[in-house]
Amino acid sequence: MPPAWADHGKESLRSITRADVVAVLPASGTPRVDMLQGLRHILRPLKNRRIIFTDPTARIFCGMPTTTIPLPVEVDDLRRVLHDQEIPRAALASLAIFHALTTGQLRGLKTTDLRDGRLLLPNRAVLLADPVRTRLAAYLDYRNHRWPRTANSHLFVSQTTGCGVEPVSHVWINDVLGITASRLREDRLLHEAEATGGDPRRICVLFGLSVGAALRYTGTVDQPGLVEHSLRNGAFSPPVPHIDHAAE
What we know:
This protein is mostly helical. It has two domains: 1-66, no CATH class; 75-247, hpI Integrase, Chain A (Orthogonal Bundle), CATH 1.10.443.10. Helices cover 50% and strands 5% of the residues. It has a four-stranded antiparallel sheet, with no helix packed on it.
């Protein structure tokens, strides 16, 4: 129970009203969203179990999280993870750095999604860059050697999932990378936005983003801080992914 409720003599969640909830909520942004969602996770199950009579969080406008500005990754950090001697790390990094795959996409990849140098995603087919092909070939050799009899059809397997059929977890992917896959993906999308002069359509087509999501990256073009970062770190230019519409 928030301290403000206790300070006002609220001793039970049954006595909490809509006005009490509104009174403790931050005005806007991510703090408001996080607090309201947290209260709903507590109060709604209590209402469903009839422990409390009404849900005081009902019909309260949640608002939108504070929009964050995507930031590039230091080039040395990109090179370090891409050229790492740990084969799973290098393979995961190459897919995020060159083709901006999400953690969910990395988890869901199947071995059958790799075909003739292409990666077959649900909504598009991507011609893999040569560095990605090299690292995936090394990873497949590693995978076959370590789990020769696994029944797991997912491309990436761990010590836990190698004996089952479920995908690896988000936590496993980020732990193996040593950096979140979303950071590597953001860096790739920022690079594409800069290389195309802020063309949202190209980002939508290449990476399957919505227009709104693409504008988050194209809106950073020509920002002084990002331009200075690019000049200071030099160019790290992954090849442009290719979409093979005939394979869809």
